[in-house]
Amino acid sequence: MTLTPLCPFEMVVFGGTGDLALRKLMPALYHRYQEGQFPADCRIIAVSRTPLNREGYLVELRRALQKYVAGSHFEEHSFNSFAAFVDYVELDGSQPEGYQQLRQRLHGDHDTPRVFYLATAPSLFGPICHQLRQAGLVHAGTRVVLEKPLGHDLASSRLINDQVGEVFGEQQIYRIDHYLGKETVQNLMVLRFGNALFEPIWRAGFIDHVQITVAEQVGVEGRGGYYDQAGALRDMVQNHLLQLLCLVAMEPPSTLDANAVRDEKVKVLNALEPITAQNVTSQTVRGQYRAGAVGGVPVPGYLDESGIDPLSSTETFVAIKTQISNWRWAGVPFYLRTGKRLQNRISEIVINFHQVPHSIFEPGSGALINNRLVLRLQPEEGVRLAMMAKQPGPGMQLRSVDLNLDFAETFKGRLPDAYERLLIDVIRGRPTLFMRRDEQEAAWRWCEPILAGWDQHPDNLKKYISGTWGPTAAIALIERDGFTWHEE
Prior knowledge:
Blueprint: E1 10-14, H1 19-34, E2 43-48, H2 54-68, H3 76-83, E3 86-90, H4 99-105, E4 114-118, H5 125-134, E5 142-146, H6 154-165, E6 173-175, H7 183-193, E7 207-215, H8 224-230, H9 232-249, H10 258-271, H11 280-283, E8 284-290, E9 292-294, E10 297-299, E11 317-322, E12 334-339, E13 346-353, E14 372-378, E15 382-390, E16 398-406, H12 407-410, H13 418-428, H14 437-456, E17 461-465, H15 472-479
Parallel strand pairs: 1-2, 1-4, 2-3, 4-5, 5-6, 7-12, 8-17
Antiparallel strand pairs: 7-13, 8-11, 9-10, 11-12, 13-14, 14-15, 15-16
């Protein structure tokens, strides 16, 4: 497949020595370079307080790419060519010193896309943006990328957005959620709106219920100081899971124009039935992992992790039952689930269709299982449709079989990482897969009453053993409605 080369661009990564930059951003740019999308005249500048020169940074960068770029995709000669585009500037983002040095490294005119990627603490977003303006580094072609978490509640989110908005227009701000760059998530749009088969039955009356699961085997992984102040609802539900829910539930947009898509997502968020202190204990489950074993390896409990308050009540697991109050989805429950130290690492969307209204088959032919569409985001991306079929041989014996679209098998070769797609979209000025401010604030408005409700019921934190699927209360949450979590 021939890829369209990018126009000349400049990208400045604040937090350039951090985990996100070295584990995700730089490998993504390296892969795009390998695919031939870099023009001769582009620049990538890593910015950090770490006392390094360019040569020292390239040593760190080579080590990171060797670690995070899979197998044979790292090549010494291509790294050396890629490194020619990379520079490094030491500066403290909140202080004016160093910004003039940064300005000297940027050579593009006002027509050259200039991207500032803020892979830093959100408290620095506003100060960095104001320093960029003071240094004369912002022009009409400038874009700024904001990583999550954007605040810890609605008020702090608005404060950050206000500070950034004093420097950049809304059309220049790209609030990133890497889940929206995954191939399966984008294929959900094609599946729904590019096929006549699904859209007529994508509604109440045909769909029984929907499950969205993002399960991790890892713990806090050295992020204890951050995670203990955030928790699973802020870290995963407010952004990732609600974004996936929006793509499942939104009405067809008129076009793929950014505002047309985001308008429909906001409508979904505004139609979510509220969860408050009155129903928070019946509609949600929150849990915290204890010591156990994941994949046969013993792991500590959350309270024993580095950087965690030994009396912490921060949740590492959340399960939620919610509904959408509109004509398409009235009466269809949506179950959301995410957690750390769970049995498997898996992210998926499961659309469960209604059972057939009447069986014409003889008893003993086999149970009729409802059709189920599974969209797997990780670890192996793909789409599976479970449907009934007759087993070969005499008689009428039924079984559920899968029609399987495995992306790696169907589309030969390496599947691009989500950040590759999203970085290219920023450079090209395509904001469709990024959150608009009103969309983000609508998500916070829905989540805040849940947090407040939990504060009123502090004894409702359920402990679960690492390596399981979470608290037993999460099983009860869905099974009292007659359903079961999809687990393979």
